[in-house]
């Protein structure tokens, strides 16, 4: 079976090219000379961009344990609809991914029933409780690509130091959710005028900053790479920028909501604007964009965090943290960053493909001969409104419902197979 | 004039005109409270439920009496003995009360925004009787009524609010309401108990109590919860009383005829000394009486919207 994609604008080797791509048995066999004569199936990409499938370094699939929120089937379908062909899922399932059995469960179910490539992330500590190291080596053999206690910080600095050293030996990136829980003090939104007006306990930005500083210092001390998850504050961006300039092995991601929305979105006790880290101030948002522009922030991740309607339709402080992200990430990145002239389309694509793939050390994120054909076709021209009711995810918890955006995924191909088509 | 909303959720969304109208109505209602025949029939055939997720004496009793003085059926739901203890959600509890024909639900809740959530999900009127650290609109209205009685106007008044501003819904509602009515609000608190951005609500923050109360018409103390000491917000009750408590000496620079106010219940000798609480200038008990009148006014105006 041979498939030819033709007439699109192809992003190959970091530049735009007018060419054709020929796929055979799921593998890209030619990125220049493909002709219609040799193909069994032709995909006409006229008016569309043809990009490497997106790579998400940070999502929650909720499976096992919270299948009422999302499962591997719905989650990977949502990823496919958003243009993500490879996703790394966080370990805060039930039971958590702190042992090889759960890793194998996720990998096997994904292969059998999933729509995209799934790369599990294991827990740093057993039960994600911050006390004892998890079996990182055995989980590595089972297929994890990184470790993280995402959702919870490793509060004990000594344990974090040992985790870095140990994970480093197995070549596993450590992804840190930076939050000093004492400073966060059970807050439910960013600390500032809006939290004061709403009478909600605030999470000060410094609760993130001190942990970012700690991770940088631990990385410097141990020489082990640390990846900072979901950067949301101005000071975090500054700290990471300085660390990179000093040659410390730190990488960083942010999420579309941190460069699109501010704490103001929480007004009216909008629980779909509740997440952790919380939406911050305008100043923080601008600094995050600066960090994206100058490369301080390497990666745009979704932090896709589906929840059931009932978990959001409650008092703000009781509401679950997080928003769904797969199906809006590309469009928000394009609309907020490229359309507004902050970065080029190619820079955006790097942060959604090759950069996360390199951080996770997975062979994904580019279109290349001899590699699996993970490819998406995208329409960047026609504006549309986000409609959560159309989401493939079980979660509809998005603050972006009704937002006008550009960047609609038309076709998603994983291993040469069409897994999503916008009809 | 009719109230623009079916609910009283906070002074943030009530206009200055509406506040004046509520206070005017409350003045009329006070006649009933002060008479020996405390019965009018404005609310005959109506039912009012107080749904309290936090302890309260004065606010709950005040609402209950307000409803009863006007002939309504008033029922109190105490959370400890209700389905809430079985894990029922706020929205489900609200819908249950509504299904029984409740016209007005009065809610106090430890979480900010709970009344808003309820109001969005039921068609009965909702009155916020205090939500977390957010608002306590009926308290601010009764405070304003008490000031009006003494000074005839709110515009141009200088009001000092002293104490735990951070956790205080009374302070937030008063700051919002008083500035809306043209008064000036001065604040003084331990710096650990000042919420960020509070001056952007129109209040002035002072570094000491002497300057905060200077030339003020009203000095209002706030209740300090003694357990805040354990959260490192201040070192001891003794030190709090010494630096942040109101006493006759440190408020000398307030106006001669200034009112001393407190939303109650008071920790005597902590946020206010007895010499203040029991002074002639103290209107703490008047505040309580006006609480009934203001709540009667609100119940009357909300049921009169249709």
Write the layout of secondary structure elements.
The complex is a heterodimer of chains A (423) and B (306).
Chain A: E1 2-6, E2 9-12, E3 15-17, E4 21-24, E5 27-30, E6 41-44, E7 49-52, E8 54-59, H1 72-82, E9 84-89, H2 100-113, E10 117-122, H3 136-142, E11 146-148, H4 157-169, E12 174-176, H5 181-184, E13 189-190, H6 193-198, E14 202-203, H7 206-222, E15 226-228, H8 234-245, E16 250-254, H9 256-260, H10 282-293, E17 299-300, H11 309-312, H12 326-338, H13 345-352, H14 354-360, E18 375-385, E19 404-414, E20 417-421
Parallel strand pairs in A: 1-6, 2-7, 8-9, 9-10, 10-11, 11-12, 12-15, 13-14, 15-16, 16-17
Antiparallel strand pairs in A: 1-4, 2-3, 4-5, 7-18, 18-19, 19-20
Chain B: H1 16-34, E1 47-52, H2 58-69, E2 73-78, H3 90-99, E3 104-109, H4 114-121, E4 125-131, H5 137-151, E5 158-162, H6 169-180, E6 184-188, E7 204-205, H7 209-213, E8 218-221, H8 237-244, E9 259-261, H9 274-277, H10 284-303
Parallel strand pairs in B: 1-2, 1-3, 3-4, 5-6, 5-8, 6-7, 8-9
Helix pairs in contact in B: 1-5, 1-10, 2-10, 3-4, 5-6, 5-10
In short:
The complex is a heterodimer of chains A (423) and B (306). Chain A is α/β, with parallel strands linked by helices and 423 residues long.
Q: Could you describe the 3D structure shown?
A:
The complex is a heterodimer of chains A (423) and B (306). Chain A has 423 residues and is of the alpha/beta class. Chain A has 2 domains: 2-49 and 372-421, Urease, subunit C, domain 1, CATH 2.30.40.10; 53-360, Metal-dependent hydrolases (TIM Barrel, Alpha-Beta Barrel). Chain A has 14 helices and 20 strands. Chain A has helices at 72-82, 100-113, 136-142, 157-169, 181-184, 193-198, 206-222, 234-245, 256-260, 282-293, 309-312, 326-338, 345-352, 354-360, and strands at residues 2-6, 9-12, 15-17, 21-24, 27-30, 41-44, 49-52, 54-59, 84-89, 117-122, 146-148, 174-176, 189-190, 202-203, 226-228, 250-254, 299-300, 375-385, 404-414, 417-421. Chain A has an 8-stranded parallel β-sheet. A 6-stranded mixed β-sheet of chain A has the order 3-2-7-18-19-20. In chain A, strands 5-4-1-6 form a 4-stranded mixed β-sheet, with no helix packed on it. The longest helix of chain A is centred in the middle third of the chain and has 17 residues, at 206-222. The radius of gyration of chain A is 20 Å and the shape is globular. The model of chain A has no long low-confidence stretch (mean pLDDT 97). Chain B is of the alpha/beta class. The radius of gyration of chain B is 19 Å and the shape is globular. Helices cover 37% and strands 14% of the residues of chain B. Chain B contains 10 helices and 9 strands. Chain B has helices at residues 16-34, 58-69, 90-99, 114-121, 137-151, 169-180, 209-213, 237-244, 274-277, 284-303, and strands at residues 47-52, 73-78, 104-109, 125-131, 158-162, 184-188, 204-205, 218-221, 259-261. In chain B, helix 1 crosses helix 5 and helix 5 (137-151) packs across helix 6. In chain B, the strands form 2 sheets. In chain B, strands 7-6-5-8-9 form a 5-stranded parallel β-sheet. In chain B, strands 2-1-3-4 form a 4-stranded parallel β-sheet, sandwiched between helices. Chain B starts with 15 loop residues before the first helix and ends with a helix. Chain B has 2 domains: 11-136 and 288-303, 3-Layer(aba) Sandwich (Rossmann fold), CATH 3.40.50; 137-287, 3-Layer(aba) Sandwich (Rossmann fold). The chains are: A alpha/beta (423), B alpha/beta (306).
């Amino acid at each position: 079976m041979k498939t030819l994609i033709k007439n699109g604008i192809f992003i190959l080797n970091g530049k735009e090219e007018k060419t054709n791509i020929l796929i055979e048995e799921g593998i890209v066999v030619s990125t220049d000379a493909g002709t219609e004569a040799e193909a069994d199936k032709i995909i006409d990409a006229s008016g569309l961009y043809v990009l490497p499938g997106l790579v998400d370094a940070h999502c929650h699939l909720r499976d096992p344990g919270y299948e009422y929120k999302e499962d591997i089937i719905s989650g990977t379908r949502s990823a496919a609809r958003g243009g993500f062909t490879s996703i790394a899922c966080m370990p805060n399932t039930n039971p958590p991914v702190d042992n090889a059995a759960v890793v194998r469960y996720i990998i096997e179910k994904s292969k059998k029933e999933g729509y995209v490539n799934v790369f599990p992330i294991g827990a740093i500590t057993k039960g994600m409780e911050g006390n004892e190291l998890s079996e990182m080596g055995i989980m590595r053999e089972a297929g994890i690509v990184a470790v993280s206690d995402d959702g919870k910080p490793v509060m004990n600095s000594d344990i974090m130091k040992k985790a870095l050293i140990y994970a480093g030996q197995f070549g596993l990136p450590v992804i840190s959710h930076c939050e000093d829980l004492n400073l966060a003090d059970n807050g439910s939104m960013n600390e500032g005028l809006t939290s004061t007006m709403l009478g909600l306990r605030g999470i000060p930005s410094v609760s993130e900053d001190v942990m970012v500083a700690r991770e940088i210092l631990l990385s410097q001390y141990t020489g082990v790479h640390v990846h900072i998850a979901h950067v949301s504050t101005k000071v975090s961006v500054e700290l990471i920028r300085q660390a990179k300039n000093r040659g410390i092995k730190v990488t960083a991601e942010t999420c579309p909501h941190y460069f699109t929305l501010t704490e103001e979105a929480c007004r009216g006790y909008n629980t779909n604007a509740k997440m952790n880290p919380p939406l911050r101030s305008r100043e923080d948002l601008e600094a995050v964009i600066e960090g994206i522009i100058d490369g301080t922030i390497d990666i745009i991740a979704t932090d896709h965090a589906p929840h059931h309607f009932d978990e959001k339709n409650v008092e703000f402080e009781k509401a679950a943290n997080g928003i769904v992200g797969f199906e809006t990430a590309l469009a928000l990145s394009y609309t907020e960053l490229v359309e507004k002239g902050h970065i080029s389309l190619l820079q955006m694509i790097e942060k959604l493909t090759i950069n996360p793939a390199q951080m996770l050390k997975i062979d994904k994120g580019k279109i290349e001969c001899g590699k699996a054909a993970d490819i998406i076709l995208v329409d960047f021209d026609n504006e549309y409104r986000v409609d959560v009711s159309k989401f493939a995810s079980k979660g509809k918890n998005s603050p972006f419902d009704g937002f006008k955006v550009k960047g609609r995924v038309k076709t998603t191909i994983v291993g040469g197979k069409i897994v999503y088509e916008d009809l | 004039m009719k109230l623009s909303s079916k609910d009283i959720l906070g002074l943030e969304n009530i206009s200055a005109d509406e506040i004046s109208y509520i206070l005017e109505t409350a003045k009329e209602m006070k006649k009933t409270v002060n008479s020996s025949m405390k019965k009018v029939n404005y609310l005959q055939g109506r039912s009012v439920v107080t749904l309290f997720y936090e302890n309260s004496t004065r606010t709950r009793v005040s609402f209950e009496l307000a409803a009863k003085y006007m002939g309504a059926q008033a029922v109190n739901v105490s959370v400890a003995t209700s389905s809430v203890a079985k894990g029922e959600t706020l929205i489900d509890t609200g819908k249950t009360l509504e299904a029984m024909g409740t016209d007005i639900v009065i809610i106090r809740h430890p979480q900010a925004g709970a009344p808003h959530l309820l109001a969005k999900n039921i068609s009965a009127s909702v009155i916020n009787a205090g939500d977390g650290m957010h608002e306590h609109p009926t308290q601010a209205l009764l405070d304003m009524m008490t000031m009006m009685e003494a000074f005839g106007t709110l515009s141009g008044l200088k009001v000092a609010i002293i104490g735990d501003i951070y956790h205080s819904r009374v302070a937030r509602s008063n700051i919002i309401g008083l500035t809306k009515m043209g008064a000036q609000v001065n604040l003084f608190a331990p710096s650990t108990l000042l919420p960020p951005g509070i001056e952007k609500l129109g209040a002035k923050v002072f570094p000491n109590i002497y300057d905060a109360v200077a030339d003020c018409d009203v000095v209002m103390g706030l209740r300090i919860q003694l357990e805040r000491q354990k959260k490192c917000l201040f070192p001891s009750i003794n030190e709090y009383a010494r630096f942040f408590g109101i006493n006759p000496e440190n408020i000398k620079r307030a106006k001669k005829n200034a009112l001393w106010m407190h939303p109650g219940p008071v920790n005597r000798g902590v946020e206010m000394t007895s010499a203040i609480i029991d002074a002639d200038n103290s209107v703490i008990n008047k505040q309580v009486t006006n609480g009934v009148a203001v709540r009667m006014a609100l119940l009357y105006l909300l049921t009169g919207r249709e």
